[in-house]
Amino acid sequence: MSDTPAPGRACVRFDVLGPLVVSVDGVPLHLGSPKQRALLGVLLANAGSVVSTDRLIDELWRDDAGPERQNALWVHVSNLRKALESEGRDRTDSVLVTRSPGYVLDEGAIQVDAREFERLVVEGRSLAPTDPDAASMVLAEALALWRGQAFAEFVYEPWAQAEVARLDELRLEAVEA
């Protein structure tokens, strides 16, 4: 994920190292229904990868994934796009992009606290052999990004468990370092 959006684009920030919080240029957004929030969660847990519509339907509705769920997914995608688009941006500048066979978040338009955390942990590790004090400061900065359990509202969802476990392991490594 990019740490900075492309020039001239609004900064959409996703904080997942605790409860899901989304803001555009520092202004918090209301994301709508729990299903829309879960849709965004699945996309963030698979950041940088296209998530197929079939997988989204399976993850969001599990055993209740009937044929009408495709239309419901389209409605949730449309509503989520509206929530993520800032005033004055046209639809071709959407953060949530349709890409066959599903959807992906545009890496050039977003910041994600989990990716910033990962970058800082890598930086801290690389500084450790030559400058332990600087490494400690960078790792402290990384750990300060945490506001609770990663993907807190989705921690028990099957789609979130691998990403939660990965981030928790990286957090423990940062604490130990």
The helix/strand series, from N terminus to C terminus, equals EEEHEHHEEEHHH
**Major β-sheet profile:** 4 strands, mixed
| Structural class by sheet pairing and helices | alpha+beta
Kindly provide the radius of gyration, computed on alpha-carbon positions and rounded to a whole number of angstroms. 17 Å
- 3D shape: elongated
Helices, by number, come to 6
Mean pLDDT: 90
- Largest beta sheet: what is the strand line-up? 3-2-1-7
Which spans have pLDDT < 50 for at least 5 consecutive residues? Answer: none
Count of strand segments? 7
Beta-strand residue percentage = 5-15%
A few lines on this structure:
By secondary structure, the protein is α+β, with helices and mostly antiparallel strands. It has helices at 34-45, 53-61, 69-84, 113-127, 132-143, 158-176; strands at 12-15, 21-24, 27-28, 51-52, 96-99, 102-105, 110-112.
